[in-house]
Amino acid sequence: MRICIRQHAYSTFPAFMLILHWNPIPFHAHLALDNSSFAADIRSWDHEDMFRARSGLRELAQDVQIAESLRQFGRERVWTNEKHLELCRVAAPTFFEEKRALWMTEQLIALGYEARVDRAGNVVANLPDESKGPWVAVTAHLDTVLAPRNGDEIRVGTDGRFLGPGVADNGAGLAGLLAIARQHSQRRPKLNSTGLMLVANVGEEGEGNLSGMRYLCRQSPMADQIEAFLVLDGPGLEHLTTQALGSRRFEIIFAGPGGHSWSDAGNPNAIHAMSRTIADFLDCHGRRAGFLHTRYGRSTANFSLIDGGTSINSIPAGARAKLDLRSESTEVLDELAELLTDCVERALVSENERMTAMRGNGRLTAKIREIGSRPGGQLAKDSRLMQTMREVDEHLGIQSRLDCASTDANIPLSMGLEAVSIGAGGSGGGAHTEGEWYHPEGREIGLRRIYLALCQLIRTA
User: Fold this and answer.
1) How far apart are CA 18 and CA 30, in angstroms?
2) Which CATH number fits domain 66-244+380-459: 3.40.50.970, 3.40.605.10, 3.40.50.720, 3.40.630.10?
3) Less CB within 10 Å around the terminal CB: N or C of the chain?
4) Helix H or strand E encompassing 283
5) Of 153, 247, 198, whose CA–CA distance to 436 is shortest?
């Protein structure tokens, strides 16, 4: 049994009814009206549009083949969970996804797909009679930030949670992709000539710089035949990522002569210069954060992977750090990149002036290298994909919110293509840490959401 709050379809006032549903596939519950932008968009629909959306999804969900697939997501929990754990035991750190790509290829071939690895390392699969397009693409990234050292690190806790690196991000997305693939191959509804493309792509995390999705959208010979992208990234149902969070990533390097901490005292110190750079940048960004947020939206800066020096009694000859900048505004990213240059120059001048005053030897040099850039973009509110996700979430009673994040969807959104990034159901936490976990309870709701959205997109193509 499930309890939900429903607004009357024909009332102009926010009158609510308490409704009890009992159905193995719980449908027909409205989004709760709250202050989210998604709820505001739902309220902006006129009553005729609302009725048409509900009746259209109801008709689709009652198709014999689709209805059976929706039931099977719940009945095949064990199969999905086993595949989830198995794939997570195949290590796939960014730039080293080959073994997991091979595993995914074998799984998809076993399900009846023509699967191959493209030039970027992505696994791309279609059913034999859907090999020519056009397609709706369902994608999930292969790579993880941390990788298990052995299969025993991926385990099931006493509370039923999956534990270990990558079980949520993106074990949940890849398991979801396989579950969708299984149902589509077994009882594919005949909706129209548009087919399904399955993609397990490389290079989403860290310095992968969305390389797999860049190739798929820009260089792949199939690129111009993809009509929409459903990107499966992590667990959950609550977010609907329709805005691509832009980012720029930099490596900062200081280099100097080094020396002995006592006999060469006065020589420029690369770590001192790096420390000044970091403190100066964060102070400047912090002072402007309020203004930037008011005018352009949120922005963040994160220094990481700092290293340098060789021993406690040596002046460091080198220091290196990496910086991740994120913002909802391209203008702010450009401004922060300029700020970084200014801070590095000030630190360089300060450390070399200190060297001169202390009669040291040699000079410090600095270099800034951009190592990644993720473009921003946004799904239009009146797009077919946005409308589809609204209808499906309303139909399933999912209370989702529009979200801004950095995902594989950045690339198609930046090109004006229709794309959304969603969770694949269940719950999880601790992403990108040793304490990562995933719980499969409720996963089937996420899978039904993906499958209904896919079928609706194919039907309305």
Assistant:
1) 11
2) 3.40.630.10
3) N
4) helix 270-296
5) 153
